Amino acid sequence: MLNPFITPVSLYNGAQGAAKAAGGNYSLGIACTNLNGVAVTSAFFRSISVTPVTGAFTASATTDVVTTPTATPTPTPTAPAGTTGTVALAPTTANATNGALALTVPAGAAATFSAPSLVNNKSTTVGTLGAVTVNDGRVVSRNGWDLSANVANFVNSTDATSTISKIQLGLAPSVTVAGTSATGVTAAAAQVAGSASYPAAFASGAAANTVGDSVLNAGLTFVAPQEKAAGTYTSTLTLTVVSK
């Protein structure tokens, strides 16, 4: 390198005077040659901006280029000849068949109620329905299901003429995790004592993923009208499961 400090006036190729007078953007650099300047082996330059007349110049900033080398793939080892072999596998399968959609309620099932108490001067008692199970064995079609509940009006056990409307029974369905193997099962919204509407949704199983057992239960609330005589009132709650 004969001239390490490169400026436009230090170079002998190019119209330095014209560039100084006119100003503008130029390339400033050196070329490495051999064969007495005939062959260029490499060149190095920077872009510069020249101020007209004065010839003052500034070099543009350079940006480093990072090159990520291509990873060399790891060669797959080759087993020595005679140490491996293949065996063809071709099992035959059979079509599965649908099982049944069923509801299991324990024999003699009866809800349990606590002793009544006065809430806002109304006889109120709470209880539990007891566990019931929907079993969906339809492993092929996986249709899903809906479970509904209906309630009969309540009748005084000693005076059949004294009744209480079923709307006075509150029902809050729930899914019991223990014993439930099906997925996609949801309990329906609660019915509020005094404004309940039956028949009502109890629970549902989404199509495609409810195969297996679904254990369900419900909280109960019974609010008697103030004008009704004290006593035990009986009714039945009927559950029905249907395919979607």
Secondary-structure topology with pairs:
Layout: H1 16-22, E1 24-34, E2 39-50, E3 57-59, E4 101-104, E5 112-113, E6 117-119, E7 122-128, E8 132-136, E9 145-151, E10 154-156, E11 163-164, E12 169-176, E13 185-187, E14 200-205, E15 212-223, E16 233-234, E17 237-243
Antiparallel strand pairs: 1-2, 2-3, 4-8, 5-7, 6-7, 7-15, 8-15, 9-14, 9-17, 10-11, 10-16, 12-15, 13-14
Structural features:
244 residues; mainly beta; seven-stranded antiparallel sheet; four-stranded antiparallel sheet; 1 helix
Describe this structure in words.
The protein is mainly β. The protein is built from one helix and 17 strands. Strand 2 and strand 3 form a beta hairpin. The chain is elongated and about 130 Å long. It starts with 15 loop residues before the first helix and ends with a strand. 14% of the residues are buried.
Shape descriptor: elongated
Number of strands: 17
Structural class: mainly beta
Helical percentage: under 10%
Radius of gyration: 45 Å
**Uncertain segments:** none
**Strand and helix order:** HEEEEEEEEEEEEEEEEE
Main β-sheet: number of strands, strand sense, barrel status? 7 strands, antiparallel
The share of residues in extended strands comes to 35-45%
Q: Termini distance?
A: 88 Å
Q: What is the average per-residue confidence, as pLDDT, rounded to a whole number? A: 87
Number of H- or I-type helical stretches:
1
Write a compact overview of the structure shown.
The protein has 244 residues and is mainly beta.
